[in-house]
């Protein structure tokens, strides 16, 4: 009897103990689950913050790239102006030299006349007049003296005026040349400052990218879209004949544009580069469309004014897509929410998703 009671008590105790343990275990799992959910949410937030930082820094890098490209273009313009001014100064020097030669020739002619007069015993115009043999001869001599005198004065005055004008022009152009040289130096200093800022920001972009890479699984969707886009590009290649015509004579179509642009995947970004071995963003788009005889302006902001407006929802392969406010970047839409572009310093021509950017501003169709 006592044994049965003891057994019963033990059974109840064990059951109660097991039940309590299961409750505790379940509570622990629930707590772990909540913690995991919390960590997941934190990781997602961390990734979004990292992506936001990367996007902001990329935008700044692109803006700097655009500014550097503009500065390079301005320096090129100044160099051309300086060359023209130097040519003008050289021409002015030659004109001055010729004017001096002309003046010397006239001076010698004048001296020869004076010498001839002296040799003939006539020391001046008065003597020429007084040497007249009769009244008719007197009038003739007066007219000759008057004509010679006026001609001398006119020639000398003209030559002096020309020399003064050329000297003034030379002085003005030298001043302009000095001003242009100073401006060029200022722009080169600005370029150096931009490069310093760019190097500094690249450090941040590298750090932010490392942080974003830690959550790389979150971007698999983008990768899948890009993979799909690559398949579409291959289809476009298959649907487009090989390009044997010279640049500017190829037949244009959406497939042709995408297929031709994809030939340059992997080419490095370079300020002011227009291909084919390297490109900046607008240099890439200009190079691609030039192949089809479409002449685009040199910089992205100017390209945004060409062709016809296209709503984002109506994008077709071959459309130009623009980013930044003010506009500082351009690429070519290739379909499947993706575009091909030459992004920024340190990167290469590649395909990216439109959804990876929040600064899309407009699109244009130029063919």
TrEMBL record:
Signal peptide limits: 1-26
Coiled-coil residues: 26-113, 156-239
Molecular function as annotated in GO: cysteine-type peptidase activity
Record has Hydrolase as a keyword: yes
Keyword Nucleotide-binding in annotation: no
Domain (NlpC/P60): residue spans on this chain: 251-367
Record keywords: Coiled coil, Hydrolase, Protease, Signal, Thiol protease
InterPro entries according to UniProt: NLP_P60_dom, Papain-like_cys_pep_sf, PcsB_CC, Peptidase_C40
Gene3D superfamilies for the chain: 6.10.250.3150, endopeptidase domain like (from Nostoc punctiforme)
Gene Ontology BP term (one): proteolysis
Protein family (similarity comment): Belongs to the peptidase C40 family.
PANTHER family xrefs: MUREIN DD-ENDOPEPTIDASE MEPH-RELATED
Protein name from the UniProt record: Cell wall-associated hydrolase, NlpC family
Protein species of origin: Clostridium grantii DSM 8605
């Amino acid at each position: 009897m006592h044994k049965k009671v003891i057994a019963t008590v033990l059974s109840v105790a064990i059951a109660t103990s097991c039940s309590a343990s299961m409750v505790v275990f379940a509570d622990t799992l629930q707590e772990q689950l909540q913690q995991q959910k919390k960590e997941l949410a934190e990781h997602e937030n961390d990734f979004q913050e990292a992506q936001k930082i990367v996007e902001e820094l990329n935008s700044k890098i692109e803006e700097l790239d655009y500014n550097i490209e503009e500065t390079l273009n301005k320096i090129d313009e100044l160099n051309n102006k300086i060359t023209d001014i130097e040519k003008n100064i050289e021409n002015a020097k030659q004109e001055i030299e010729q004017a001096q030669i002309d003046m010397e020739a006239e001076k010698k002619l004048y001296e020869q006349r004076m010498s001839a007069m002296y040799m003939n015993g006539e020391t001046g115009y008065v003597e020429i007049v007084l040497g007249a043999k009769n009244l008719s001869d007197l009038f003739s001599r007066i007219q000759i003296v008057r004509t010679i005198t006026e001609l001398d004065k006119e020639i000398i005055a003209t030559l002096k005026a020309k020399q003064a004008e050329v000297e003034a022009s030379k002085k003005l152009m030298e001043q302009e040349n000095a001003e242009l040289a100073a401006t060029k130096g200022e722009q080169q200093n600005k370029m150096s400052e931009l490069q310093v800022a760019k190097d500094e920001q690249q450090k941040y972009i590298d750090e932010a990218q490392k942080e974003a890479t830690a959550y790389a699984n979150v971007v698999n969707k983008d990768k899948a879209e890009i993979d799909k886009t690559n398949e579409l590009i291959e289809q476009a290649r298959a649907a487009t004949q090989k390009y044997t015509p010279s640049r500017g004579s190829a037949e244009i179509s959406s497939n042709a544009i995408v297929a031709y642009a994809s030939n340059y995947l992997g080419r490095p970004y370079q300020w002011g580069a227009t291909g084919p071995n390297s490109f900046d963003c607008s240099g890439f788009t200009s190079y691609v469309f030039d192949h089809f005889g479409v002449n685009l302006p040199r910089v992205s902001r100017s390209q945004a004014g060409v062709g016809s407006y296209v709503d984002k929802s109506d994008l077709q392969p071959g459309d130009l897509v623009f980013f930044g406010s003010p506009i500082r970047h351009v690429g070519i839409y290739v379909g499947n929410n993706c575009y091909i572009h030459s992004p920024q310093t340190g990167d290469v021509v590649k395909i990216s998703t439109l959804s990876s950017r929040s600064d899309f501003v407009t699109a244009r169709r130029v063919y």
